[in-house]
Please model this.
Amino acid sequence: MGTTNDSVVSEFVLIGLSNSWEMHRFLFWFFAMFYMGIILGNLFIVFTVIIDSHLHTPMYFLLANLSLLDLGLSSTTVPKMISDLFTDCNIISFPKCMIQIFFIHVMGGVEMVLLIAMAYDRYTAICKPLHYLTIMSPKTCVSFVVAAWIVGIIHAVSQFVFVINLPFCGPNEVDSFYCDFPRVMKLACVDTYKLEFVIIANSGFISMATFFSLIISYIFILVTVWKRSSGDLSKAFVTLSAHITVVILFFMPCMFLYVWPFPTTSLDKYLFIVDFAITPVLNPAIYTLRNKDMRVAMRRLSRQVSCSNFC
Model:
């Protein structure tokens, strides 16, 4: 990331989501509240999993890592967007723009692999319950997380090395609220047609392959449960519905932006609000309000806090 190029452009102007002052005020409070929910909700999950020994299981270990990733992914874009809405200064320096792109794709790649690990965890728990603790050992869980970070870094670097060396000598207005490959590459002073297909082949293929692999795995789990006992199908579906919801919300914007040629409309920047603001705040709600173990752990934790204050 220390590579330099011959760019004349030293900063980019982020157009944002709206030019209306009234809309700016609404968006400021909207994203401020959502980001507060993201911080509190995801840190609460991580804190609860660490504190409560009943949650020291593979599923909740992966869930805590997912919460940290959601917090990190959101923090790459939302604080800057909130600041821009408050100060009306939508300027980002060239190095900060490149850093934002890099970390968006690192954490996006990590989250994709982590969602695969969570799907495998649910497959093992539902289809091979007697061997669950043997297969999903602590070593296996740590290996999943390490592999996810390795894949995420490779995924980001394999695209980033091409983009950082592009010459930028003309327009510097990015039609979005954050920096990413498609919008920034269009500002380069060279033809990026071939590079666009490199990005599509990388990010697009990973997004699409991961999405369909996850959906197929969930269908396979449901079919396996249905063959064993049709009465358990509804229970299994309830268990998996949270995972399916997260997968659909996370991958839809990615596939829209990266699977086919880069869009010329502004729809993609609105879709990515889902990934950066909505999904990270929904995950804590989905995994706590719909999860019996988490609800019990929350009550246990609240009793402990109350006892420490009043006992």
